[in-house]
Structures are given as structure tokens and as C-alpha cells.
Design a protein that fits this description.
Glutaredoxin; 131 residues
């Protein structure tokens, strides 16, 4: 059961501490997409699309949090709750021409999605290579 204990165990893990590791910017409005596009010329903009009702999405989010190692000034990291902000999710797919999946990470530079991954591919995405 070792692998399952590691994946599903919350032993010695405080969820609030994990949340504090990353300076998430809530993505709640379609208007923010213009800001993301504009700011992407200064530094990468990362969008994490999360389905709150999906166990796989929660597992990938936990993994992403645990492996995230960028400094706060290296990129802006947006968190999108797909269920609460479906319209925003649809517009992300449209604006950046990336087929919607969840969970999903998009890296925006100079106004375009230069990389995107979903599901297990998210944890293998080397974010520092886009800095």
C-alpha cells in the first residue's frame, strides 16, 4: 500500500501551508484575460484550471503545489475554478486556442500559449524552462 499511502495520505501535511506556498491569483473574470495577455510580455503567466469535483484534478493540484519551485517574481500564477467560472474557462480556451481539459495548465508568453498540459502531464511540465 506504500504508493497509495503517498498519494492519498494527508499525514504531516497541513493544507493551509500548501496553499501558502503559491501566491495564487484567483481567475474569476473574463476581463482578467486581457491583463494576462498584456502582462505576458513582461513575465510568464500561468493558468491552472481545476475541477473541484474531480479526484484526479485534486491529486494533480496537490502534486503541482508540492513540486512548484518558482519564485514569486518569476511568473504570475492564476487559479481557475472551472465550476464557479465556466464562462472564464470557455474564454481561456477560445482566446489562447487551447482545447479545454481539466485539470490543465497553460503558460502564456507574449500573448500566446507557448505550452499547455493536462492531467499527469502537468507534473512533468518544466516551468522554469519558460522563464
Amino acid at each position: 500500500m506504500g504508493i497509495f499511502n503517498n498519494l492519498f495520505s494527508s499525514k504531516n501535511v497541513n493544507p493551509d501551508e500548501q496553499k501558502d506556498q503559491i501566491a495564487w491569483i484567483p481567475l474569476t473574470s473574463v476581463d482578467q484575460l486581457m491583463e494576462i495577455e498584456q502582462n505576458s510580455s513582461k513575465r510568464p503567466q500561468i493558468i491552472f484550471k481545476h475541477s473541484t469535483s474531480c479526484g484526479i484534478s485534486s491529486m494533480v493540484l496537490r502534486s503541482f503545489r508540492n513540486s512548484y519551485s518558482l519564485e514569486e517574481n518569476q511568473a504570475d500564477l492564476y487559479f481557475l475554478d472551472l465550476h464557479r467560472y465556466r464562462e472564464v474557462s470557455n474564454e481561456v480556451a477560445n482566446k489562447f486556442q487551447v482545447y479545454h481539459q481539466s485539470p490543465q495548465v497553460l503558460i502564456i508568453k507574449n500573448g500566446i500559449a507557448v505550452a499547455h498540459e493536462s492531467h499527469g502531464g502537468i507534473t512533468s511540465l518544466n516551468l522554469s524552462s519558460y522563464i
